[in-house]
Design brief:
The protein is α+β, with helices and mostly antiparallel strands. It has helices spanning 23-30, 58-78, 80-85, 88-122; strands at 2-6, 13-16, 33-37, 44-48, 53-55. The chain has two domains: 2-55, no CATH class; 58-118, no CATH class.
Amino acid sequence: MKLFIFCSNCRNKIKLKYYVNDRAELLKKLGVRISLVCKECSLSKNYHVNDVKATESKLTLLFATMILFFGTGIVGYLVKDFIFGASVSYAIYVILGMILVPSIIYIMIKKQERDSIRRFNEYWV
């Protein structure tokens, strides 16, 4: 989850480099007012904690996608002998499981990220 505030002068995104689960944790770390300087227009201003917004992190998306692709490959490599040695009906179940396990992990990571963003953006101080 990435945190940012829009500059009140030029509407540029000012990124915050803090990892928090909700706005209350951000309030505990930084206080009610956050003093930030915009890199575009060099305006220094105090922003309220409620001005902070959260969006999805590309790093989390990359991590989940890597688990999906590499996890499928690793599981396929580990069960390749069973797939070629089993009957057709068992091989189909193994292939489906090989795709399903990394897919479930991918979906769980994405859902947790969406829930964190929604929880952060809905909670007001």
